[in-house]
Specification:
Number of helices: 9
CATH topology: Alpha-Beta Plaits
Number of strands: 4
Mean pLDDT: 93
Order of helices and strands: EHEEHEHHHHHHH
CATH architecture: 2-Layer Sandwich
Distance between the termini: 22 Å
CATH class: Alpha Beta
Strand order of the largest sheet: 2-3-1-4
CATH superfamily: Transposase IS200-like
């Protein structure tokens, strides 16, 4: 079966996952995380991508972002990916690929899954047993949303602003969401949808999204009519 092209639609939030080749580390020191974030900041701005949330794990990373154009995310990921591989290979005196194939991504219904996806991203280091709480992990956007630092890389989605009328109220409401966690079903749906490339949302959302692209957005979406 032919590989489906990535689904990228302007104005919609996208959940993105990129893993290291053979699950190998892609960050070896604090300087590597800092360099990657600097590249991500530069190219997200250059390509017109609003980055809502992120986490950099030892051997993979997650992004939640909304592009201004259909080319914005692919161009950003290509630029960051190539530049970071050159940087990392030079520092580690290595050659060859660093990434496990293409990055994975899909669209998520903002009203249903955006805040859940942010919580899911923040809890990655906790699920991996790296820290006891998201606030203890320095390489994610959680501390920004918890009101503990200002992260210039982050552009809050409008749904975050609806959590409260003041910065303190929004931060407290978001921390409460993270503390409540995410159920296993939503967690699995967020992972599977990104890895498989199918849009994640209610039937009406998926149907409306299908009208915006010729690429199938779900396994059940109609394909090309069979010839008579």
């Amino acid at each position: 079966m032919a590989r489906l092209p990535r689904l990228t639609v302007p104005g919609y939030p996208h959940h993105i996952i990129q893993r290291g080749n053979n699950r190998q580390p892609i960050f070896a020191a604090d300087a590597d995380y800092e360099a990657f974030l600097a590249m991500l900041d530069e190219h997200s701005r250059a390509q017109g991508v609003a980055l809502h949330a992120y986490v950099l794990m030892t051997n993979h990373f997650h992004l939640l972002a909304t592009p201004d154009s259909a080319e914005a995310i692919p161009q950003m990921m290509q630029a960051v990916g190539r530049r970071y591989v050159r940087y990392f290979n030079q520092r580690q005196a290595r050659t060859g690929t660093l990434w496990e194939g293409r990055y994975k991504s899909t669209l998520i219904q903002a009203e249903r899954y955006l805040l859940a996806c942010m919580v899911y991203i923040d809890l990655n280091p906790v699920r991996a047993g790296m820290v006891a709480a998201p606030v203890d992990y320095p390489w994610s956007s959680h501390r920004h949303y918890a009101g503990l630092r200002t992260d210039k890389l982050v552009t809050p989605h409008p749904l975050f602003w609806e959590l409260g009328n003041t910065p303190f109220a929004r931060d407290a409401a978001y921390v409460e969401l993270v503390n409540a966690g995410i159920d296993s079903g939503a967690q699995r749906a967020l992972t599977d949808s990104a890895l498989r490339g199918w849009a994640l949302g209610e039937p009406g959302y998926v149907a409306a999204l299908q009208k915006k692209t010729d690429r199938r957005v779900s396994p059940g979406a109609p394909g090309r009519p069979r010839a008579k």
